[in-house]
Design goal:
By secondary structure, this protein is mainly alpha-helical. It is 69% helix and 0% strand. Bound molecules: fe (ii) ion (FE2) (2 copies).
């Protein structure tokens, strides 16, 4: 079977149960794509199968994931709950519609597209961040924003770009420290915009390089980059107004840890020219 969607190491959360459930979902979607293309099994059967699989997944997996996030006090829990609820509602609605010969083929395509989008946006964009804020994932000796020796991959422009991102994160973090309750965080937000710009520039250059050397991991890298950019651009404004200092500190640490993990697990595999 040709795997259309690949589960890569940077998606591992470190919780075995959650990771194997995510892998199961990749398999479910890949199998559905494959079966649909082969055209050997009736679409009504395939539709029934994928709906049952997704319903099962939603019932079991989200509970596990939310419990784990609660346990490790993950700041993304409320956001995750919202996204999970949207998934549950959609699948419940679909399960209530009768499966007929007339509607099966088209609905199957729609559900597969929904599942694929979920892999792309939710697992690669949100679930991959679970636990990423935990300091214990990377030995930082109390310096989470330092560009560590182990981050050097030996491709100069990538190393320089990553150094710059860590430097910006460190700047943001120390700027947050100077704030008190009444301050606005406009200057912090400005630095986040700068971070977004720098990350964008680096990622474009990195992807150009990977394309040139015909690197097989380009697609996965591209997805990881997209989720990183999405992450930064969706700072939770409501929480900024609430306990913003604490939230911002958490957020910037989160981004730094994520970047560290990305470098160690993904960037390190990019071959030198
Ligand atoms: Fe999730
Ligand atoms: Fe998940």
């Amino acid at each position: 079977m040709v795997e259309k969607y690949k589960f890569t190491d940077d998606l591992l959360t470190g919780n075995n149960e959650i990771d194997s459930e995510h892998k199961y979902l990749f398999k479910l979607i890949n199998t559905a794509v494959d079966d649909d293309e082969k055209n050997e099994i009736p679409k009504t059967v395939l539709l029934k199968k994928i709906l049952k699989g997704l319903d099962n997944y939603a019932t079991n997996h989200f509970v596990h994931e939310e419990e784990y996030m609660q346990e490790i006090d993950d700041p993304e829990l409320s956001l995750q709950k919202k996204e999970h609820m949207a998934f549950i509602n959609y699948i419940e609605e679909e399960c209530e519609i009768e499966i007929t010969e007339e509607n099966a083929a088209e609905r199957l395509k729609t559900i597969i597209a929904f599942g694929a989008k979920w892999l792309y946006y939710h697992i690669m964009g949100s679930d991959n961040m679970i636990g990423a804020f935990r300091k214990s994932d990377i030995e930082d000796n109390g310096e989470p924003f330092r560009f560590k020796n182990e981050y050097v991959i030996g491709i100069t422009f990538i190393d320089d770009g990553n150094i710059q991102l860590f430097e910006l994160l460190r700047k943001i973090d120390s700027l947050i420290d100077t704030k008190n309750e009444q301050d606005t965080f406009d200057d912090v937000m400005k630095l986040f915009t700068e971070l977004l710009g720098s990350a964008n520039t680096l990622f474009t250059a990195k992807e150009g390089y990977m394309e040139r050397i015909e690197y097989a991991g380009l697609e996965e890298q591209h997805k990881a980059h997209q989720s990183f950019l999405k992450k930064i651009s969706r700072i939770d404004i409501e929480r900024i107004n609430d306990d913003r200092k604490e939230y911002m500190k958490e957020f910037v640490l989160y981004i730094a840890n994520w970047l560290g993990i990305h470098i160690l697990k993904e960037d390190k595999q990019i071959p030198k020219e």
